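Project outcomes to date are best conveyed with an example. Our students and postdoctoral researchers have been running inverse folding experiments weekly, and each run begins with a structure described purely in tokens. The record below, which covers 489 residues, was selected by the lab manager from last quarter's runs and is presented without edits.
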């Protein structure tokens, strides 16, 4: 990649070159030479039958940036098999390549090797700041035509990323556009304000340029270690007696730490009952907000990625035991795997292990999302409940008995499913590799499978010697190619 071009372009890019065209050109016309259509063909896995997969195709917008690259969102680029870019809304498709992706930031860069594709394609100019009010245009190629629809800025808000874990600045719009949320360009005064990430009715959520641009610049310079986040849990002191009890003098301010153990399961410098008064020099109020010099009142969560990356150290002022203290807080790196139930699993097939018709899988949110968009209500309650718990060094993750494919070997157990595994043959189970080792060590000729407390079934006992033949029989009967897929550590 031409990183030097990208760095210079991101820092100095002016208005879209096409803006110098014919006087009176519409916003859509001015942006036609900076937008392309990205077609993604990807694998879609069935987590309830993990040996099955299908192919699906999506189209989204990609925006030309300096260095002969196109910027888009990371969503739906995982497990891709083919990427193609099309310019002008119709005509030839060009094979594309994924150059860089960060799922936590929900950003990706794609490129095309053919130089002819880039001829006349004009890199965008970035908006330095995001306005808090006024009108914008949402621009995209659609059905072979460049389309521009008006939108009205609603607010700037800090919320969780579309792909989870990180909370950062978003721009909310109101618009009557339909079918948006596919990285359409949001523009104003010939500058890119951001890319759309979702639509709910007339509400459009936008990943803003001031969040994306520093990440791209740092990555281009080879100094982007990933995004960090606050892994402590805090609460608003809504009852004023709480702060009084913690010996905070008037006026009321700050938020109260209620859990000092981070998602990593490791003790962090903050303690339970600490009152956070300042982060990185910004005063924190009792709503958990600070006053941003550019955007006004925002949630403190934004300070974890406001010009900061994983590994950076922030100065925190806290009240502890009635005394103000200065705390050095090192931002942990965002990693889906640090949760007990990871929110996302990207770029690999679902893991599973099949023994005698029993199908075991890691317990994670992609698995639970098999129950549909309302999975928190529809999926088995106990499995969903684990998502509110934190990992421990002893149990960093969970394994579930997902389904049982009926066979004489498992007769009597065939109706049980969706059970969380505790131990197998006396061994604590936290991942599929533990299962493989445990099944290699039966107890007195039997496999003893124990489930977590509260499950509908507490244990299974199966003949260890008959298991291999039963596994082969099940694979043949149900036309399954292999009995396992375990990702490399």
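After processing, the design step wrote out the following sequence:
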């Amino acid at each position: 990649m031409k990183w030097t071009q990208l760095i210079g372009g991101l820092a100095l890019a002016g208005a879209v070159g096409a803006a110098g065209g014919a006087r009176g050109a519409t916003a859509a016309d001015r942006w036609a030479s900076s937008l392309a259509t990205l077609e993604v063909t990807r694998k879609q896995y069935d987590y309830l039958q993990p040996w099955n997969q299908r192919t699906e195709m999506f189209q989204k917008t990609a925006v030309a940036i300096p260095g002969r690259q196109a910027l888009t969102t990371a969503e739906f680029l995982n497990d891709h098999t083919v990427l193609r870019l099309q310019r002008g809304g119709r005509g030839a498709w060009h094979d594309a390549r994924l150059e860089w992706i960060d799922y936590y930031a929900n950003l990706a860069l794609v490129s095309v090797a053919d130089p002819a594709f880039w001829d006349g394609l004009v890199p965008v100019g970035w908006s330095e700041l995001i306005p808090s009010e006024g009108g914008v245009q949402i621009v995209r190629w659609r059905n072979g035509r460049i389309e521009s629809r008006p939108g009205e800025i609603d607010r700037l808000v800090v919320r969780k990323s579309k792909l989870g874990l990180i909370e950062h600045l978003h721009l909310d719009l109101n618009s009557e556009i339909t079918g948006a949320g596919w990285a359409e360009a949001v523009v104003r005064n010939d500058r890119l304000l951001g890319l759309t990430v979702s639509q709910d009715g007339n509400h459009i959520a936008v990943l803003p340029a001031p969040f994306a641009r520093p990440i791209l610049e740092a990555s281009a310079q080879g100094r982007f270690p990933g995004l960090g986040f606050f892994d402590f849990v805090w609460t608003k002191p809504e009852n004023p007696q709480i702060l009084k009890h913690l010996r905070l003098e008037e006026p009321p301010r700050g938020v109260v730490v209620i859990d000092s153990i981070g998602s990593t399961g490791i003790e962090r410098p903050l303690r339970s009952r600490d009152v956070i008064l300042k982060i990185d020099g910004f005063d924190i109020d009792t709503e958990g907000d600070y006053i941003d010099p550019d955007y006004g009142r925002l949630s403190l969560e934004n300070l974890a990625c406001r010009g900061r990356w994983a590994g950076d150290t922030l100065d925190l002022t806290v009240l502890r035991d009635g005394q103000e203290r200065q705390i050095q807080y090192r931002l942990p790196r965002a990693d889906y795997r640090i949760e007990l139930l990871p929110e996302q699993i990207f770029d690999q097939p679902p893991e599973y292990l099949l023994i005698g018709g029993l199908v075991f899988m890691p317990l994670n949110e992609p698995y639970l999302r098999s129950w549909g968009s309302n999975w928190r209500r529809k999926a088995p309650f106990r499995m969903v409940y684990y998502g509110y718990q934190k990992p421990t060094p002893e149990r960093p993750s969970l394994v579930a008995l997902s389904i049982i494919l009926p066979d004489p070997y498992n007769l009597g157990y065939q109706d049980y499913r969706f059970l969380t595994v505790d131990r197998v043959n006396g061994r604590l189970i936290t991942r599929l590799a533990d299962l493989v080792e445990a099944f290699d060590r039966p107890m007195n000729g039997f496999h003893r499978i124990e489930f977590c407390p509260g499950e509908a079934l507490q244990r299974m006992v199966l003949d260890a010697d008959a298991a291999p033949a039963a596994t082969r029989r099940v694979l043949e009967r149900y036309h399954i190619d292999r009995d396992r897929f375990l990702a490399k550590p």
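Residues 1-8, 10-24 have pLDDT under 50 and may be disordered. The longest helix spans residues 209-220. The training component of this project remains on track.
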